[in-house]
From TrEMBL:
Keywords: Oxidoreductase. One of its GO terms (molecular function) is oxidoreductase activity. It comes from Lithocarpus litseifolius. CDD domains: retinol-DH_like_SDR_c_like. This is Short-chain dehydrogenase TIC 32, chloroplastic-like. It holds the Pfam family adh_short.
Length: 330
């Protein structure tokens, strides 16, 4: 209740920021401390909070790599960003996150460019009311929101570790998730059922994929700390933002409820603030395995904090990746 009131009032938390803070505001305060020549990959950057994240980071001098399924839309965004920030360097590469082969191809193409990699923002997400399957015969929401990002992270991790060791600048991985992860009950979180559900529910599938994103963070943070790698990974809940995903969700709530709820939705700039804060804030040097909301560390569900569940999911995911791609993802 206390957190809800803080959110509605827009009160600042310990970080000095709150639900009303925008991406511009949170980065302006420490813009002079942003290291030069950073490179960030941002998925889902052609619209919504991903596009705003790309715009703000580019404005701070970060080279932006945009993996996009629609290169025309990506080119339009590049033009908009460079109109505001003429010196911005934007790299566009094609990818379909629901396809494991496409993600692998993107990673190979990116690595061939010889660029450094400091920041990886796994932001893309879809919501599907109807049961659909990817080319790998995996439920589309889970394939896109979780598995695609898992492979992306696995295949780019060593480049991030290498960049951090070479530059002395800590690498940061950010999984954009949702508070809706807390709706998932333990008995409904079954890996094989999520890959090929018998009784599909769009909201449940979306929530399960977002829980998987957090469990990925927990296990990756443990592994990175164990090897003393200078790369952190954290989860971010952007808030309920006025984006295409929200419009898609109107199928399970009435228009009247949506109208009332929409008055409390964040703008894209407010929604991108936590991602930008976690990506660049010097206050978060060394912070890993955490869950953030409204630019402050927050609490996730007990299931999301279950270390054994995180390790089990990681092993199951690795096995699927090995089987589908014919080789380990990393």
């Amino acid at each position: 209740m206390k957190e809800t009131l803080r959110y509605l009032a827009g009160l600042a938390g310990p970080s000095g920021y709150g639900s009303n803070s925008t991406a511009e505001q949170v980065t302006e305060d420490f813009s002079c401390m942003v290291p030069p020549h950073l490179t960030a990959i941002i998925t889902g950057a052609t619209s919504g909070i991903g596009a705003e994240t790309a715009r703000v980071l580019a404005k701070k001098g970060v080279r932006i790599v945009i993996p996009a399924r629609d290169l025309r839309r990506a080119a339009e965004l590049k033009k908009e960003i460079q109109k505001e920030s003429p010196q911005a360097e934007i790299v566009l590469l094609e990818v379909d996150l629901s396809s494991l082969t496409s993600v692998k191809r993107f990673c190979t193409e990116f690595l061939s460019l010889g660029l450094s990699l400091n920041i990886l923002i796994n932001n893309a997400g879809i919501f599907s009311q109807n049961l659909e399957f990817s080319e790998d015969k995996i439920e589309m929401t889970y394939a896109t929101n979780y598995l695609g990002h898992f492979v992306l992270t696995e295949m780019l991790l060593e480049k991030m570790v290498e960049t951090a060791a070479k530059t002395g600048i800590q690498g940061r991985i950010i999984n954009v998730t949702s508070v809706i992860h807390s709706w998932v009950k333990r008995d409904s979180f079954r890996f094989n059922q999520m890959l090929n559900p018998k009784n599909y529910n769009g909201t449940r599938a979306y929530a399960q994929s977002k829980l998987a994103n957090i469990l990925h963070v927990k296990e990756m943070a443990r592994q990175l700390q164990a090897r003393n790698a200078r790369v952190t990974i954290n989860a971010v809940h952007p808030g309920i933002v006025k984006t295409g995903i929200i419009r898609a969700h109107k199928g399970f709530i009435t228009d009247s409820i949506f109208f009332v709820a929409s008055k409390f939705l964040k703008s894209s700039s407010q929604g991108a603030s936590t991602t930008c804060y976690v990506a660049l804030s010097p206050q978060l040097e060394g912070v890993t395995g955490k869950y953030f909301a409204d630019c402050n560390e927050s609490s996730c569900s007990s299931l999301a904090n279950d270390e054994s569940e995180a390790q089990k999911l990681f092993k199951q995911t690795r096995a699927v990746i090995y089987k589908r791609l014919g080789q380990p993802a990393a």
